[in-house]
Amino acid sequence: MDTLHSPVEILVNSFAKIDNDALRLVLDAIPDPVFMKDENSRFVVLNQSMCDFMGHPYDELVGKTDHDFVPAEYADIFRQKDKIVLETGKINENEESIRSADGQLRTLITRKARALMPDGARYLIGCITDITHIKQREETLQLMFDANPLPMWVFDKEGLEFLAVNQAAIQHYGYTRDEFLSLSVLDIRPSEDAALFREIAGTGRGTYDTGRTWRHVKSDGTVLDVVAYSKPMDYRGRAAAIAAIVDVTEQKRQERNLRHTTEFLDTVIENVPVMLTAKDAVSQRYVLMNRAGEEFLGVSRSEVIGKTDDDIFPRELASEFAERDQAALETGVVQIEEEEKISTPNNGVRDSMTRRFAVHSHNGNSRYVLQVSQDITEQRRSAEQIAYLASHDAVTGLPNRSALLRHLSSTIEQATSGREAFALMRISVSELKDIGDAYGPEMLDKLLCEVARRLQATSSRHFLARAEGEEFALISVEAPSSDIAAALADNLIAAFAEPFVLDGEQFTVGLSIGATFFPEDATDITVLLGHAQAALERAVCDGRNVLRFYEVDLDRKLRERRSLGRDIRSALDRKEISLHYQPQAVMTGEIIGYEALLRWTHPQRGSVSPAEFIPASEENGSINEIGEWVLRTACREAASWEVPLSIAVNLSPVQFRQGDLPSLVHMILLESGLAPNRLELEVTESVMMDDFSRVCSILRRLKTLGVRISIDDFGTGYSSLSYLHSLPLDKIKIDKSFVWMLQKSPQSRAITRAITGLGCDLSMQVIAEGVETIEQLNYLSELGCHAVQGYLIGEPRPIADYASQVRPGKEVPQRSLESDQRRAQT
Questions:
Q1: Cα 445 to Cα 439: distance, rounded to the nearest angstrom
Q2: What is the rounded CA–CA span in Å between residue 295 and residue 189?
Q3: How far is CA 42 from CA 60, 88, 339, 692, in A?
Q4: What pairing do the DSSP bridges indicate for beta strands 43-46 and 34-37?
Q5: With 0-12 CB in 10 A as exposed, 13-18 as middle and 19+ as buried, what is 82?
Q6: Ramachandran region of residue 543, left (φ > 0), alpha (ψ -120 to 50) or beta?
């Protein structure tokens, strides 16, 4: 390049026309350092700025080279670049960092060009621009860009590609710097946002101006919500924009959560199943009411919002509400839950449980009374109904046992304080169980209601309750003596002389009444009830339409039997129950089996007779558990014997009424491994007094198991011979009462002879129990009796006493009748 176009170049071209002083004045006016060198790199012209820059006056610089002022390594570089410019004519521009005369490190841009003189001489014209401050500012800006905690980048405004990114952007978005610089700002946006961004980018407005939030996509696909603040800039000669990114994802999430929470709370308030209202504390006008409030009041919320309680409720009720609202505002705490009876506009009178409390608006400028009211109308009615049912019998509507106990306790308290007397009666209605079994529970309930009505009609001045089942109780303060109580009982009994007619059927029932007196018989409620029950049980035993008063001596036995019944329930658990075994033998004395007999050793009473505790256990139902234990224990014991002797077990009539007796026997046989033909089940004639067809069915099912059935105590109970033909019996046992009287009573001998003959004719074995003498044995042998049982053969003892007869490897001894007789007599 041989032509110069800068002002300095023009001045140089006119170098010969203008004197040196004028030239220097012009050059000195230039603020940047300007110099001229010859072909040997000697300074020939310098302006004042160059002299100042070099730190030397003009005279010390002219004719000198860079080697005279800067280190050789720098001077050599400058000389080399000077030669290139002089030889090629190309302009050289170079950024250099050198230390100035004052010792400061300066950043310079030096531009050098060649100038050809008319005489052919070549000169180097140079201009130095100090860009130290610009460079420092750029470095500061670069530092702010690189170290900024906000993600920042620079992108080309036309192509939208990234030109620069800072470290925060790299870390936040997960792209490497190279990956960023290979993308455009469209690549980090969801595709559906690209068109809108191009539109806004084309307007030249930044996101701040548009007020928009954008979505960006991180390298892992996570979508961010961001606000981008951008400004246009020139970046290395390109039209660009610098952007700072604020991640508002969490803020947006919180805003969405807040919005969802608000919507959720609105939904909850609207759908909560209690009335919720809010009133302005100043105007006392309703500002909120939910759907449950509409249902509670029977009006829409549009008829409530903006109105006061005076506009909606009766004046007295509105005044009460105002007082309670004011109390809530003054205390500032939740008011105690109060039960209110509210006369609603269109939903009648409702019971509610209401709480009130004062609340402030979010800015604290307003106060409200928030009221939560739960409609408890139905609960109140249900509670009243439950309370009624808790104290009244569901069938008859009479007070029940709980109410009886409360009233009796209150009556005792009043009678004690007033030194008064009263009668307590317990009434049992006969035939109810049979009627229920025959006609069903519905008919029984109808009859109970009619029975209750007659009792009420006859005892209207007295407290009447249904105690339980078929029993009623009556408390009469007007019958403090036995004569008055007897007259009342006679009236009650007479009222039931006429039959009841229900659904075309006639029913006749009777009353059994037990009575006791306060304080003559007892002052304690439990004792008084027990006395009345004891008297009632005697009345029931004595027949229908009977009144019995409590009597100490007669009822003591009843109480003892009850006590015995309570003890027998736990006797098995306490291991007080055991089995003794009594041998059975044929007429020659050979043992053919044993009968298992129950024994109870009471810890206080000692040995209790089966005649006492078995009826008690039958009465309270414990005989079922005891009977199962006896059957299982006896079968298990017999199964352990090597000699296949039979084992006889007694069955109670109660066992025929409850449970599945054949299944129980079958299960025990399987458990014990006892052969069925070795088990003999003994039943008494009283079993036949129950449901005869059912008893026959049970006995036949037992017979199919392979066990044997014998009738025990024959001739002492249900003396009908018809069942002998109907039942699957194997054996008849002559009761010991006949055997004991053989030598004394011709009637006993006749009955015994008849039973033996009957058994033989029916192909049944006959066994006599209670045999104690040789004479009894001989007589029975003559009659053809097959076997005997009694003290002559052996006493009931623990099986260990008969070990020699049942243990494996032992011979069964043949005992002489003489020795047995002597043993029986002793």
A1: 10
A2: 51
A3: 12, 19, 112, 151
A4: antiparallel
A5: buried
A6: left
Question: Distance between CA atoms of 782 and 801, rounded to whole angstroms?
Answer: 31
C-alpha 794: how far from chain center: 64
Work out whether strand 546-549 and strand 105-116 pair parallel, antiparallel, or are unpaired.
unpaired
Nearest to 712 by CA among 628, 750, 769: 769
For residue 444, the one-letter residue type is L
Instruction: Calculate Rg over the CA atoms of the chain.
Output: 61
Question: Which segments of the chain have a pLDDT < 70?
Answer: 1-23, 100-102, 136, 138-141, 143, 202-211, 333-337, 362-365, 554-559, 689-690, 715-723, 808-826
Tell me the sheet residues that pair with 232.
Answer: 241
pLDDT at 13: 52
Q: 315: Cβ–Cβ under 8 A, 6 or more apart, which residues?
A: none
- Can you tell me whether residue 6 is helix, strand or coil? coil
CB 124 within 8 A of CB 85: yes
pLDDT score for 480? 78
Ramachandran angles phi, psi of 180, nearest 5°: -60, -50
How far is the C-alpha of 172 from the C-alpha of 168, rounded, in Å? 6
User: What's the CA gap between 806 and 591, in Å, rounded?
Assistant: 10
Rounded CA separation 73/584 (Å): 141
Question: Please, is 116 exposed, middle or buried when counting C-beta atoms within 10 Å of its C-beta (0-12, 13-18, 19+)?
Answer: middle
